[in-house]
Structure to design on (169 residues):
């Protein structure tokens, strides 16, 4: 494993990914990783992914865990939620290429997956690939990430001027 700093991996899920999370925790332990499990700690069909994903994302930003694995039924809610935390670069990943390149180019620090969309073998390959990858530090990627990070310094009501034209008042 090539993780630096704490070397700890954080993981979180709601009910939609509970079974997958349990499998990944066991595999992470078997592979020698230190794991911080942010829950859910039991299968509760009424639970809400932000209650688990937000603490995980905050732990990544605070350096308490090196990288995060966020799961829900589709992975979409987990990704939307994690990316609301400044400093988080979360990606919803279904393929090996993106699990590696998301780190190398985009400095992804949280991988999001769907417990209802990927099986355990694919999910483990994605996690292993994500954890083994390193950010390239290439100037073009730093430039792009700087533009992304600049959004975090702007109030949300200014975002329309930066990119989206989804709707006009
Ligand atoms: C919960 O049923 C489900 O909506 C949630 O796990 C996730 O898929 C949301 O994106």
């Amino acid at each position: 494993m090539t993780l630096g700093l704490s070397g700890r991996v954080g993981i979180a899920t709601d009910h939609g990914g509970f079974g997958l999370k349990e499998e990944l925790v066991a595999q992470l332990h078997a592979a020698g990783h230190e794991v911080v499990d942010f829950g859910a700690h039991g299968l509760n069909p009424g639970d809400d992914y932000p209650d688990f994903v937000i603490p995980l994302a905050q732990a990544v930003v605070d350096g308490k865990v090196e990288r995060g694995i966020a799961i829900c039924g589709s992975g979409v809610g987990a990704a939307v939620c994690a990316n609301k935390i400044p400093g988080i670069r979360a990606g919803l990943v279904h393929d090996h290429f993106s699990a590696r390149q998301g780190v190398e180019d985009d400095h992804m620090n949280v991988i999001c997956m769907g417990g209802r969309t990927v099986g355990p073998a694919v999910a483990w390959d994605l996690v292993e690939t994500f954890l083994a990858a390193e950010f390239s530090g290439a100037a073009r990627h730093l430039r792009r990430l700087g533009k992304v990070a600049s959004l975090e310094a702007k109030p949300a009501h200014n975002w329309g001027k930066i990119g989206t034209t989804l709707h006009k008042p």
